[in-house]
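To whoever is on call:

I kicked off a structure prediction for a single chain this morning and the downstream step that reads the tokens threw a length-mismatch warning. I double-checked the sequence; it's 161 residues and nothing unusual in it as far as I can see. Pasting both halves so you can look.
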Amino acid sequence: MRESNKSHSTLSRRKVIVVGAVGAAALVGGAWWRRQAPDYDGGKLTVAQAHQQAKSGAVILIDIRTPREWRATGIGDGAHPIDMRRDDFVAALQSVAGSDPSAPIALICARGVRSARMSLRLSAAGFSNIIDVPEGMLGSGAGPGWIRAGLPVEKWQETQG
């Protein structure tokens, strides 16, 4: 009887360890996946190109981050802040970029993940000239990002975005 209890206790501990390990792996995998930018086959710009083209009027640069992020780092010079979580995001985008779905619109976020996802969504919604800035404001595998590249930022005003 004693041997049976020991075997059952060991089996239960093993189950707990295995289930815990599987759960932890799922959490880590999910966190990793959320940080991976999807493949976007459309146009891409470096942060220096995005800044230059936004200042010259060649593209409309949209910072899709959140007000908390804008407050923390500022907004890239020449960018228009529009929080991508807005229910009326497309309408807000059109109020800045106009109603022409072929207008060149570049999207930037913190590290290029959200901008790639939003580039895919807007392209699927009929916008034909969406350009991703995969470095983002803070840098990514694509490059150092706007801030570390030393590009100018402006303080975010609460009335923006």
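Update from on-call: the warning came from a stale cache, not from the record. Cleared it. Sanity check on the structure: Helices lie at 2-34, 47-56, 67-73, 89-97, 113-124, 145-148.
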